[in-house]
Amino acid sequence: MKKPIIFCDFDGTITNSDNIVSLMKRFAPKEWEQIKDNILAQNLSIREGVGQMFHLIPSSRKNDLLDYLLETTEIRQGFAEFVHYTKREGIKLYVVSGGIDFFVYPLLNPFEIPEENIFCNGSDFTNETITITWPYSCDDDCTNDCGCCKPGILKQFDGDSYRKIVIGDSITDLEAAKQADQVFARDYLAKKCKELSIPAVPFESFHDIVQKLTEEKEEYDESRTETLERTR
Ligand code: MG
Ligand code: ZN
User: Fold this and answer.
1) Separation of 215 CA from ligand 1 center, angstroms?
2) 96-151, pLDDT tens digit by residue?
3) I want to staple 206 with a disulfide (CB 3.0 to 4.6 A). Which of 54, 78, 85, 103 is the partner?
4) Where are the chain's structural domains?
5) Which CATH number, 3.10.50.40, 3.40.50.1000, 3.30.420.40, 3.50.50.60, labels domain 3-230?
6) Cα(46) to centroid of ligand 2, in Å?
7) 168 CA to centre of ligand 1 in angstroms
8) Where does the chain have alpha helices with state H?
């Protein structure tokens, strides 16, 4: 049997809203909106756009940015229980995020997810304005200029050994969802999956996901017991 392995998005999935948008609204001059519109119109890649947006903010504000997010960011209901569930069941959990290290790690800190299980973009505060770095940018197979290349990360895990489960909410999760064996989707990703006939389970809280995974495991265990009894 293939082992389940979970790839979970961060912004808008683990957190209720998008942290980059919330930082820009609070700290960036209004030029950021033009950049955002250009990303949405696909005139700019995510990587270019996010890089440009952070260049609008002085590096000296690092602590203000983090403090603001630590105060305001809401974690989606059931996330702590979900992390416990994966540990209890021995399911590998990876966070794959287009967010930035300086806020992703601190916001995830209470949940005790090993750092090597968190993929996100990096940051450099040594210049006048904030520079974003891209340790997981696309390889030659991906022409998307993702920033943090989620399909590239999924591809590193052998599909014959793992049943890949993707949890996400937006366009940046779509290419990963196409490769997944199972998708949990909300918001834009849910709409897009429907449009493209990619089967996706809707969710609002992480309780919904735990419930679904538990049911599936019970069904599997039952069918396995039946098969064993029949062959006896
Ligand atoms: Mg997201
Ligand atoms: Zn990519």
Assistant:
1) 26
2) 999 999 999 999 999 999 999 999 999 999 999 999 999 999 999 999 999 999 99
3) 78
4) 3-230
5) 3.40.50.1000
6) 10
7) 6
8) 19-27, 31-40, 46-54, 62-72, 79-89, 101-108, 150-155, 174-179, 187-195, 206-231
